[in-house]
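Renewal narrative, Specific Aim 1. Our central claim is that a sequence can be written position by position from structural information alone. The example that follows is taken directly from our test logs and has not been curated for this report. It begins with the structure tokens describing the chain, in the order in which they were read.
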């Protein structure tokens, strides 16, 4: 049982600054977000994300900063104001992915998710993920998109 006043904990039982578990998924809130080497405005700028909604996995955090892993395998720090709790996924493979009408391999496709496309995460069931893109919802295998795996997506350097 958790002590009164404590937030949710990390997998090892420690409370995180945000009160949310690590690892967890979120997305970029804006079309431009700075990615830094460390958790400070004084830390070296590595690059600028330019993809609103890009799925990220938080692997560590401070009160103001989140260390995130992205679909390319980068591990960087972003300020908490640049991320959103909206969960998204991305098709990183080169081929289009059918969005199936049911969570089973022989279901009919409702639409296709193109390579590098971002979709809203809507839920999961038995290794399948329900997503929404372009106004259409459908089911895809969990391992067919980045941002749905239950464990850490990047190895810490």
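The sequence written for that structure reads:
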């Amino acid at each position: 049982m958790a002590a009164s006043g404590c937030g949710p904990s990390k997998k090892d039982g420690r409370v995180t600054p945000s009160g949310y578990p690590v690892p967890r998924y979120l997305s970029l809130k804006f079309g431009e977000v700075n990615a830094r080497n460390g958790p400070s405005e004084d830390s070296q700028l590595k690059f600028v994300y330019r993809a609103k909604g890009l799925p990220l996995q938080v692997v560590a955090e401070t009160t103001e900063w989140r260390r995130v892993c992205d679909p390319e395998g980068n591990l960087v720090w972003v300020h908490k104001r640049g991320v959103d709790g909206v969960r998204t996924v991305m098709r990183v493979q080169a081929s289009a992915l059918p969005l199936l009408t049911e969570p089973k391999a022989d279901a009919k496709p409702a639409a296709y998710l193109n390579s590098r496309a971002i979709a809203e995460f809507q839920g999961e069931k038995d290794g399948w993920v329900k997503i929404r893109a372009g106004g259409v919802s459908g089911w895809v295998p969990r391992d067919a998109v980045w941002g749905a795996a239950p464990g850490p997506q990047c190895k810490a350097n």
